[in-house]
Amino acid sequence: MQALVTTPGEAESTRVADVAEAQARPGELLLRPWRVGVCGTDREIHEGQFGAAPDGEEELVLGHELLARVE
Question: Model confidence over 18-52: pLDDT tens digits?
Fold first, then answer.
């Protein structure tokens, strides 16, 4: 699937990239995004002001405000 990703701390590194689809682990729900919003926090991360990638990753997927369906 495609996602809006950035390299935290690197200004204007945001781009659309192909990423692996998430897999639900025991005790988790899998959400299928329908619409995703980009907010002020995402803009500040894009500008390199702050943000951190998950452990073991170099990139951070943006867009934490969403409307989704539980799979």
Answer: 999 889 999 999 999 999 999 999 999 999 999 99
Helical residues (DSSP H) of 1-71, grouped into ranges: 40-46
Q: Give the pTM.
A: 0.83
Domain that holds residue 13: 2-70
60 CB contacts (<8 Å, ≥6 apart)?
Answer: 5, 6, 7, 8, 45, 51, 52, 53, 54
Tokens of 21: 């689809």
The model's pLDDT over 53-69, given as tens digits with 9 standing for 90+, comes to 999 999 999 998 999 99
Q: Is 54 helix (H, G, I), strand (E, B) or coil?
A: coil
Question: What is the distance, to the nearest Å, from the Cα of residue 47 to the centroid of all Cα atoms in its chain?
Answer: 15
